[in-house]
Amino acid sequence: MLKIREIDIKEFENIRGSWNNLLLNSSDPNFFKTWEWLISYWKTYGKKYRKPIILTAEVDHKLVGAIALRKDRRYISKTYFDIISFLSQGPSDYNDVILHREAGKHKTLYNILNYIGSCIEWDLLYMNDVPVHSSLSNRELFNQFSLKIKEETKKVSYIKLPDTWKGFLSTLSANLRKNIRSKEKRLKRLGKVKFETINSPSVKDFDVFVDLNLKRWRSRYINSVLQDDLFYDFHKNIIKTRSDSIVLEYLWVNDNIVSSIYGFQFEKKFYVYLTGMDPDFARYSPGNLIFAISIKDKINRRFREYDLLRGKEEYKLKWTKTSKKNYNYIYMRKSIRKIMLPMKILFWKLLNK
């Protein structure tokens, strides 16, 4: 018999193995739903929110479904709204429910959503960065207890990796191929060029990357996300709890790191999360070269996908024209107790943030 349970953070800390096993047996195992990512987020940011809401679906004490949420309260015109969103919404590029692919996932999903609609007090449900293929993208599932009041679509660039490097090169423009070759030659005139991969890096290794990332953005008078202490601590926690999925890649010229990538490898997918570059070498386009070498490395290791994640950065379009959609939804409970509040205030102050 299927049973939905709401567990506290202490119990969540003790189900690392079963949570990740469920994820590996789901139809979309991605790094942002791992136990380590979620627990690291809560340990870093948890004090900002009212409580975590972690739901598990079990059959005969076996985990067949789960979703990690959080509850927050916002005040608008002296009226408060309880808001439910994904636990690590914000830093996570993908958010979703986890459903075992062979355990009646439609029934499991229906029961999880029914629990959210009938057993949890909330006014607004924020669901950001939901993949287009997710079961949660079926808005009709929410009609029983809510009204959709906002929907946004975001593109996520990714590369479906071919079997060979030659096959991938054929997808690039002639200008980009020429740029990679010419910039590599120019860098080699400066000295020894080397590509380095650090698997399972330490926090000390991460700090080297952070310094290069900050150097890049400061040269443009732009703040880096890594200047935020909580964001930095969050990623330190991930490195400590899931270092085997963390990858740092460096492009060296002699004794100088000129470009870098901070990413995650999980189930034959590589996620490019942040990059760094020495602005003194910008004229050599080291970013293009490190991407080329990194992609070639993943092809040789039989990775299936190279994910550039969300964001509209122009460089992504040079590497791929392929994209997928993520959705942002906001649902309002049909029985919302603040319905007397003028809707124009709700829409203007909340939805346009």
Structural overview:
The two termini are 42 Å apart. Strands 1, 2, 3, 4, 5, 6, 7, 8, 9, 10, 11, 12 and 13 form a 13-stranded mixed beta sheet that branches. With 353 residues, this protein is of the alpha+beta class. The protein is elongated. It folds into 2 domains: 180 residues, Gcn5-related N-acetyltransferase (GNAT) (Aminopeptidase, 3-Layer(aba) Sandwich), CATH 3.40.630; 142 residues, Gcn5-related N-acetyltransferase (GNAT) (Aminopeptidase, 3-Layer(aba) Sandwich), CATH 3.40.630.30.
Entry keywords:
353 residues; alpha+beta; Aminopeptidase; 2 domains; 11 helices
Summarize the structure.
The protein contains eleven helices and 13 strands. With 353 residues, the protein is α+β, with helices and mostly antiparallel strands.
Which fold name is given in CATH as the topology of the largest domain? Aminopeptidase
Radius of gyration: 22 Å
What's the rounded overall pLDDT mean? Answer: 91
Shape: elongated
The number of strands is 13
Number of helices: 11
Total domains: 2
Helical fraction equals 25-40%
Sketch the major β-sheet.
Answer: 13 strands, mixed
Say which CATH homologous superfamily of the largest domain is assigned: Gcn5-related N-acetyltransferase (GNAT)
Query: SSE string, helix = H, strand = E?
Result: EHHHEEEEHEEHHEHHEEEHEHEH
Strand content: 25-35%
- Runs in which pLDDT lies below 50 for 5 or more consecutive residues are none
Question: Could you give the distance between the termini?
Answer: 42 Å
The quaternary state of the protein chains shown equals: single chain
